Amino acid sequence: MDAVLVAGDCFDDIAVSDDTLRRFKVALEPFGGVWVLLPGNHDPAIAESPWTRLRRLSLPSSVIIADEPKPIPIGDNAVVLPAPLRRRRDAADLTEWFDTAVTEDRLVRVGLAHGSVQEFLPEGSEAANPVAPHRAEQARLDYLALGDWHGHRRISSRTWYSGTPEPDRFRSNEPGYVLEVVIDRPGALPSVEPIPVGQYRWLQYSVQVFPGGAGEIRHALAGVDGTPLVLRLDLEGTIDLATRASLDEAIGDLRARVFHLETDETALITEPTEDDLDGIDTAGFVRGAIDRLRGPPEGFDADTARRALALLYGLHHQCGR
Amino acid sequence: MLFRCISVQNFRKLASPAVIEGLGAGVTIIAGDNEEGKSTLLLAIRTGLFERHNLGGRAAEAMQPFGSTVRPQIGLDFEIDGESYSITKGFVHRPSALLITPGGKFEGPAAEERLAELLTFRVPLRGESRPEDRGILGLFWLEQGRVLEGGECGELGRSTLRSSLEQEVGDVLGGARGCRLIEAASARRDAWLTAKGRPRGELAGAIDEAESATKRATELEAERQTYDQEIENLARARRELARIDIDKVLEKARNALARADEQAETIEQLRQRDQAADQAVLLAEAQAENAREGWTRRLVLIEMSTDREKASKDAEAKVLALETETLCIVSRRNEAEVALLQAVEDRNIAEGRVALSQNWARVKTLDEEIAELDRQLQKLDALVAERTAAQHRFGEIKIDQRSFQQLQDLESAMREARAELGAIATRIRFSPSAAQEVRQNDKAIAVGEGIEVTEATRFTLEGFGRVDIEPGASELAGRRIRFDRAKTALSKALTAAAVTDLAQARRVLEERLKAGTVLREANRLIAALAPDGVAALQAGHGEKSAERLRLNEENGFPLAEHIGDPGTELRSLGSTGVREEAARKTLAAAEKEHHEHIIRMAVAGQTFESVQEAVAATRRQLETARAEASDADLQARLDTAQGSVTEKKLRKREAEDRLRAANPEEVQLRRDRAKAILREVEGDQRRLRDEVIGLESTLAALGKSGIGELLEEARAQAARAISRRDRLHADARAWDLLVSTLKSAERNAKEKFLEPILKTIDPFLRLLFPCARLALNEETLEISGITRDGREEPYAALSIGTREQLSILVRLAFAVYLREKGYPAAVILDDALVYADDDRFERMQLALRKAAETVQILILTCRPRDWRQFGAPIRRLADVTTGALELA
Predict the structure, then answer these.
(1) pLDDT grade, residue A175 (50/70/90)?
(2) C-alpha to C-alpha distances, B555 to A112, B354, B357, B365, B589, nearest whole angstrom
(3) pTM over 0.90
(4) Which residues in chain B are closer than 8 Å to A15, comparing Cβ atoms?
(5) Which fold would CATH assign to domain B2-173+778-880?
(6) Which ipTM was obtained for this model?
């Protein structure tokens, strides 16, 4: 392998600690070849950045920080044309200089940039740091390695987003890959192979819960393999107190099975039914209290009153019938 | 339940048989002295109903009278709902139990089971019965001293009451499960909230944690902003430094300064040339000025010589004119001197005439004054003589007012004595038929007038003879003596006053008074004419006469010439004074004119001499100067110098034009600006380099900790803490709402549950405390307190008497309530109401009477007299003991 190109955002923020920088430096050591590291929008090459600080840490010569827009020779066969970001957002297309960059014909020309090819990315991707869709062709690049989009994605036969090697959000755009790119000679089409390297799976489910349907949550995880799972459940629906109790039980079980679980219950309403309330008590002052809570009492919102009913329901079961 | 007959034998104090028969509905008083067995009777009833007949051990032995081993026996006959029942029990020896009911007989344990069923109590499995086994009847039977225990009725009694209440109002309390729910909910609520609703425990911790995490995130945000700002500052400083290099700002500033320096040097050369031309002009002008001054001095000298010649002639003419004027001035002064001498003489004459006129007038005045003094002195002489005569007359007369008064008093005394004598005197009137003479003591008397005879008197009657009369009154002699004495005293006083009678004395007194008046008037006139005395008046007369004599001698009066009066002479003197003053002024003016003329003469002479000297000096000076340089030479020198000045000024203007054309001010400004720019740029460069070094150092220090990572972590932590806080807070609010709602519902339920029994209690309570409201514990049904006048009072805080009375009232009410619900109930009170005052005692009797309308009440008392007015049958224990009973 001639080189590993990182198309930006090695760091999530410019203000990382010295420990993080040193861990980064150590993480590069296993590969003795050339590293070409491009500043992205999360770690732009500003006056004080991880890159200026890394340089003060005595990096090995094989680690190249591509923070200047000038050609970087890779061995005897290739040259990398970088388009580093020097601010978080840039309205100009920083790859434009590739078109006029003069390199020897015998060298494989590889572009390295961080930004958005607008017409080829889904809606909602960032509009800043634009990259012309046909830059590879215009600049006679054999391959244009792009960063910024977290999933791996093919733009053209010579232009690819590699995506992040480890997922860091719930968006389902196939993160957790690196691309192995083989270019036989200048002008040849590159061979690109995505290789999965992610350690965690990030899953997000929207679950519609119905009265008596708490078990559905367990069913949603039926196909999950042994990979550590980061799970988010967006729960919605209107359920009774009995189902609420079952749901809490099911969520508790689920939390023990996954690496991390977060739930969003803002769209889930627990509404006690007559059966629920009849199950609590049918005589005595408790029944009177239930009737008042269904009011709800003055000075309290309906949500608090519902919650109080749910607590009474749970308490009733704890105290025994 | 209605007891009809109670039979007891061999039971504790009641060793002898005691049978109380004929008990009826309402109240029955059972009276007995202390230790007569009242409490034993109540214990016997309780034992007969609730204790097992086969009870053994100490409890059974305790039933036997002290020191005996007899068989205790108890029999009770009673009615329930009109049907008769009888229970008979024997203990310790041959224990037995027999219950006779309308449905049949029951013996042994069966009898007790049936009885328990009938009276709703519980037969104890072993040992003595406990209060909780005795059901509601235990509640209504109050032993001595236990009435204050607040209504302990045991679970069985409570159960009976509660079931009765629940039959009426339903199951509103929720039972023990409801209590457990409230307790559990309160525990959860209290774990998170204080009594006042403030956060505590985990909730308080979550709130603190959220605040702390938010604060930490905020602080890190600020640090991050500082960090980003410092990076921005570093970039800016570097850009500015680079810009200085790229734009060659420093080099441009240095070049501009060098150019300005060259231009300044050229300007300096031009300025020096200009200054040289300036000096040349000044030199030429100085030379021209010297030539001009030389020629001017010559002209002045010539003019001065001419002027002095003319002045000399004028001075000479002036001297001659003054000498001519001198004669006239001297003549005027002499004339003035003569006039003044004449005026002085006239004035002296006038002054002499004035003095003569005034002295003559004085002489005339003195003459008048002396004549007046002569008249006054004559008048004084006459007055003095008159005063002297009056003084003499006044001194001669001895009778004054006082002595005259004494004479009057003596005459009055004499008249009074005479009247007294006359009152008892013998009056004789002789009336002769003819003109016969009558003589008294040989002295003829007038006939026809009454005669008083106060002593032995002899009348000789002509023609008749003598008649001797001796008045015979006893006091006559004494009165005669007093009359004689008075007469004598008067006579002596008249003689001493040199008068014969009182009338003369009055005339003499008037004379004396008149002489005194004359004397006083003469003194007043003398004092008026000569207030300082006659001698002073005579001295004044002498002085004036002397002055007149002196004036006559000095002035030779009378005068030969006519002299006017002083006023006329004074006016004449004034006129001469005015003329003298005018002559003096005229002379002074003439002398002044003369003096001034002499000075003018001297000045003119002096001036003439000075002018002559000056003329000579000027002539010498002009001749000397012309010897040095002639007038023509001086004129030629002046012309040459003025030509030189014109030439030098022309050159000066040329130099100035060249300097101005070089614009020295602009060059200086450009040079200053170039210097300032260079200084500023060099300063900027130094400052920026320092700033860059400082920022790099700061950022290196700030960057070590990884502020971005810390901030992300803090934000996530804050979000988690806030989420947890909100969740716990929502839960706490829900628990709070749940607890308050449950408690509120429970409170309402309790009120509803107790309502029937409280309605029964209220009429009894009103008899004791109008408008009061009793509070019961809905669980134990014990009295918890009372509300009076809107104030809640706990039961334990009430007085012993009130507690006793309330306790009895509640039992009565319970008994009535249960009896109305069909339960067997009868009330037995043992020595109750011992703490009640008379008023309360009477009210409690009313309550008992009201309860007795529904239930039977047995009252055991050692004070039967207290109940005599109650109107209930009184049974004495001493009267009810009988022979041996025939019990089972």
Answers:
(1) confident
(2) 165, 12, 10, 16, 41
(3) no
(4) 224, 227-228, 702-703, 706-709, 711
(5) Rossmann fold (3.40.50)
(6) 0.85
